[in-house]
Structures are given as structure tokens and as C-alpha cells.
Amino acid sequence: MKLQEHYKQEAHGTNGFFKAFEKYLAEFVYGGIDGCVTTFAVVAGSVGAGLDSAIILILGFANLLADGFAMSVGAYLSTKSDKDNYNKHKQTEYWEIEHMPDAEKEEIREIYRAKGFKDKLLEEIVGVITSDKKVWVNDMMREELGMMEIDKSPLWIGGITYLSFLSIGLIPLLIYVIDYTHPLEQNLFFIASVLTAMGFIIIGWLKTYVNQTSVLKGILETLLLGGIAAFVAYFVGDWLEHLLSR
């Protein structure tokens, strides 16, 4: 019996972890996509311009740390703003229910009348909803204002976004870090491209869980996005190198 309880608790803890991860999966995916794309674009542009590996590392890590931080701050502020806006309207609804109950009850009645309810059933629905202030306010927020409460922490959203940006965005730079410490006689950009493609495949696969789309479609879209960004960055770098060297 104790062994069974142990396995149940273990399974519950594991499920809790995966549920928590799944809750912020969207932030991890989009932070990772942005990190990988922008860092690889910096690498591709630098290679196209014929810059030294040390310069590529400087530009790459500067982009990785600064852009990642800016993105995470933006995600944090955006979510916090949405939550604050929701709470402001929610307090207004509580005030209106407290001071204008008849008018607010009539609004509920109109909302559900528009949904096709009428007569006795309509009055029963209105009675049930307005008997609990919390249910009443949540229903008004959803039905009247079209607002849903955000159950995610702004701090966690910002943190997960930054963590993902750094961890996935580091992939294009890994081979250059290795080469800097232990020089390699290899085509570094080719290896970086292969590693980045693998990163795109992983992120594309995770993206399908967020968007509920085909795995193949998610992977191909992410690879295409990264490929276009790298193509543009490489040839812009190459063009500028030729232009400025004249």
C-alpha cells in the first residue's frame, strides 16, 4: 500500500511539473525562436562581412544578452499591463454590482436573452449567476467586456522568455566558443548552420504543441524563417563589406 502511494505521489509530482512547464510553453517557444533567429542572423551577417571569429563572438553575445533582456522585459510589462487592466475593470464591475444591482442584473438578462434563453429558464439562469458576486463579476467580464483573466505570472513569463532566448540563442555561437578556446580546422559557419537547424527543429516541434498544428508544418515553418533571416543577413553583410572596402 505504501509503495502504491509512493508511486501515486511521484506521478502527481511529475504531472505537476509538466503542467507547469506546459503553462509557459508558449513563452519558451517564442523566446527560443527569437533567440535562435536573431543570433544566427548576427553570425550569418558577420560571416558575410568577413569578420573574425572573435568579433562574431562579441556581436553574438552582445545581441544575445541585450536583445534577450529587452524581449523578456517587454513580455513582463505587456503581461503586467494586461493583468492591471483586467483588475481595474473587475473592480469597476464589483462597484457597479454593489451600487447598481438592478441595472447589472438587467445586463445579465440581456446577455443571455441574446443567447436564446427566455421566460422561466432565463430567469433561473439570471438568478443563479447573480446569487454569487464572484460568478456574476466573472460572467460580466467575459460576456460584456470580452476579457479573460490571465493566470500566468508576469515575472515567470519574463524569466522563461529570457531563459529560452539565452539557451536556444546560444546554439549558433557554440562552435565559435569552442574554436576560440580550442582552434578548429573546420568550416565553422557550416557547423553553426547545422547546429542551428537542429535547434530550429526542436523549437518547431515544440511550437506544434502551442499552435496545435502539424509537426512537419511547424518544423518546416521554423526552418524557413531561420533560413530567410540567415540568407538576408549573410548577403547584407557581404554587400556592406564590398561597399565599404572600396
Q: Quick recap of the structure?
A:
The protein has 246 residues and is mostly helical. 85% of the residues lie in helices and 0% in strands. α3 crosses α4 (101-114), α4 (101-114) crosses α5 (119-130) and α8 runs antiparallel to α9.
Report on this model:
Helix content is 85%, strand content 0%. By secondary structure, the chain is mainly α. Residues 1-14 have low confidence and may be disordered.
Rounded to the nearest angstrom, the distance between the terminal CA atoms is: 81 Å
What's the story with the biggest beta sheet? none
Structural class computed from helices and strand pairing: mainly alpha
Low-confidence stretches: 1-14
C-alpha-based Rg, rounded:
26 Å
According to DSSP, the number of beta strands is 0
The shape, in one word, is: elongated
Query: How much helicity do the residues have?
Result: over 70%
Percent range for β-strand residues: under 5%
The arrangement of helices and strands along the chain is HHHHHHHHHH
Average predicted local confidence, pLDDT: 82
- Counted by DSSP, the helix tally is 10
Main traits of this protein?
10 helices; 85% helix; single chain; 246 residues; mainly alpha
Blueprint of the fold:
Blueprint: H1 2-23, H2 25-48, H3 53-99, H4 101-114, H5 119-130, H6 133-143, H7 154-169, H8 174-181, H9 188-211, H10 215-244
